[in-house]
Amino acid sequence: MAFLSRLFKRGDPLAEREEARRLGMRDARRHPLGEFTDPDYQPAYVTEIRARAREQITEVDRRLAAARTVLLERATGAREVILRELGRSDTLPEPAAHVNGHGPAADQDNRPVDAFISIAEARARRAEARRRAVVEEANANVQRARARIEQLSQEWESALIERDHEVEAVHARAEQLIAAYKGGVLEAHPRKEEIPSLWKGEVIAMEATGDTPAASSGREEIGRILREVEGRIEVWRAEVMPRELPAGASATSPASDSGPGGSGQVDASWRGERHGEGT
User: Fold this and answer.
1) No. of H helices and E strands in the chain?
2) Per-residue pLDDT tens over the stretch 232-252
3) I need a surface site. Which of 19, 101, 165, 266 has the fewest CB within 10 A?
4) Pair 136, 90: CB distance under 8 Å
């Protein structure tokens, strides 16, 4: 029906319904009477409107699938950034060494026992200060990438909600057009009292995406990536933290996160030690 092709391209709902009503009046006069009175028969107009609606929903789902692909690609890219930062060898501490006969160099932080330190200890302290600066940088990059994955997860949920809204609008539009068409049929049909309250296919339940395979797979894929990187971050933090910390410093994490997208900065006590070390 060329009329339906034009109808679905228009943007004035009132004009669309009025044209559908007029079409119903015309068809009531021209089509066989039983087409509209048989409750098991779906009028041709209803069949065509539902077919057009399915086409539109298919296009909506195609866009949703494309969005899922893009979001997963971005989440995978953020994961690669995290793994690259966690794999930097320059963030790992050097093996503990005894200096000036007073135990590991880490024990000397903010607690000097000699007026003078050896050249080896001075070098070790400078190396440790450089390493901690690298850890700060790597940790900030990791936190930004992790926050990005969480944001992508939220974007996927928003895409699912938007899809449901679009599908709901398509169904509502189809039902309004069918109702307007039926109104026209009722106006002109000579046996209107025999027309059933609902034609076959007049009302169709909308399927929400929340529990569909597409929705679940998107959640699972992004969730799997997030869980993986969080586990690796935890292991990495345990590896790059100093073996012994000054009193009051965190013993679990080098970063003070402020939730998703937090500052990602290494503990302030760590920075203070680095700035106070000799050169």
Assistant:
1) 7, 0
2) 999 999 998 765 434 334 433
3) 101
4) no
